[in-house]
Specification:
Strand order of the largest sheet: 1-2
Shape: rod-shaped
Number of strands: 2
Distance between the termini: 77 Å
Length: 113
């Protein structure tokens, strides 16, 4: 009769929905495997540190392993475009003071990071 025909359609639709849900779950699990946030963040951090170290080396004009206030100001004037206006204009002295955690008048790589 008609009822048995409809029951068959309902079962087929339910089976199709379950298979679709399984496919979505499998795709989600696959995407999670492909994108590991911690791994990606670690890679980004290493790149950022490397870029920061390169910028530090550019700023350390005399190569003594630290950046003086004069080197910091000159470097920001010269290479400001590399750091997206991070230390814009007359803020050099304030930024330097903020970064110079040990207040010794120079920045080492750790302070610069």
């Amino acid at each position: 009769s008609k009822m048995s025909f409809l029951k068959g359609k309902k079962v087929a639709a339910t089976t199709q929905e379950t298979e679709t849900e399984k496919s979505a779950e499998e795709a989600s699990a696959s995407a999670k495997e492909e994108f590991n946030f911690e791994k990606e963040f670690e890679a980004f951090s290493k790149l950022a540190t490397a870029k920061n170290d390169e910028y530090f080396d550019l700023c350390d004009a005399n190569g003594d392993g630290v950046i003086s206030k004069a080197e910091f100001t000159a470097c920001n004037r010269e290479y400001n475009h590399l750091i997206h206006k991070k230390f814009k204009g007359g803020k050099n002295a304030k930024q330097f003071k903020k970064l110079d955690v040990d207040s010794n008048g120079t920045l080492d790589k750790e302070e610069f990071r």
